[in-house]
Amino acid sequence: DAKTTQPPSMDCAEGRAANLPCNHSTISGNEYVYWYRQIHSQGPQYIIHGLKNNETNEMASLIITEDRKSSTLILPHATLRDTAVYYCIVRVQWRGSTLGRLYFGRGTQLTVWP
Amino acid sequence: SAVISQKPSRDICQRGTSLTIQCQVDSQVTMMFWYRQQPGQSLTLIATANQGSEATYESGFVIDKFPISRPNLTFSTLTVSNMSPEDSSIYLCSVEGVSGSSYEQYFGPGTRLTVT
Fold this sequence. Notes:
In chain A, strand 3 and strand 4 form a beta hairpin. By secondary structure, chain A is an all-beta fold.
C-alpha cells in the first residue's frame, strides 16, 4: 500500500519553480523517498531519490525534512513538457538487494501553463 | 539505463479470450515487474518475476488469471486470461537497474488493452 500523501493537483507558470510536496509520516529508517513522473500515455520515468540528505540532479532537487516525515520535489524552471503526474514513493533499499516493489499512490497532476 | 519494449502496444479483445503481452529488455536484469494501470487510476503492482523462480503475486492477483513466464534475463510475458471488460487497462513491465548505489526502476511504454 502507498505510504505517501500528495495533493491531487498543482499548477505552475512556465519558467517558474514547481514545488511538489509529499507527506510520508510513517516512513521507516531504512526507507528511501523516490520520485517518478508519468507523462500522459507513457511509462513512469525515474526522477530522483534520497534517504535523508537533500539531493540534486539534472532534472530536479529533493528536499527532505530533518524528521524525514515529508519532502518536496523542486523543478527549478518548469517547462510545458514537465506537465505530468508526479509520484512520491517510499521503499526499502539496501546494498546488494532491494525488495524492488514500488507502490504508487494517486500522485500529483502538475500542469505547467504558458 | 535500460530500454524496454512491449508487444503489442495495444489490442482490442473479446471477453473470455486471453492475451499474452511480451516484455523485452536490452540488457540482462534479475528483477522484472508487471503493473496494471486502470483508466484514470494509478499503477498497481501485479507480480514480481525473477528468472529461475516462480513469480510472486501481490494481494488480489492470482497465477491462474495472470500467468507469467520468465525464461531468461531479458524477456518476460504476462498473460491476461479469460478477459472481462474490467481487465481493460494499460499493462506495464519494468526492470530494476543499478547505477552506482542507486536503484532505479525503468518502465516499458505499456500495452493498452481494451476488452469488449
